[in-house]
Design goal:
The chain has about 100 residues and is mostly helical. It has helices at about 25-45, 50-75, 80-85, and strands at about 15-20, 20. The termini are far apart.
Length: about 100
Amino acid sequence: MSNSVYQINKGINQSIEFKRLKAQYIWYLGGGVIVLMILFAIMYIAGLPSLICIGIIGISGTLWVLKIYKMSHQYGQYGMMKALAKRQIPKAVKSQSRKIFMMKK
């Protein structure tokens, strides 16, 4: 028998990644861009000078991109969902009566 050489696809079962953005952060960035375009259109139609519109959108767009990249790096693929779920867990469960611990026969 001859030896066969197979290439291993290392991308199987990996999360989607685009320029170091992982999973859902790609969608957050795309949604932010759409919101900024709508905001630009609203400001332009309202009569603001175009340079002011471009300045506001440029600054807020830069801040949005930096925030999304920071969250992607800090939390990873599922980390933000885990952090949000962890915040919803109560610190303690308090009960004023013992009825819930009594068994009825």
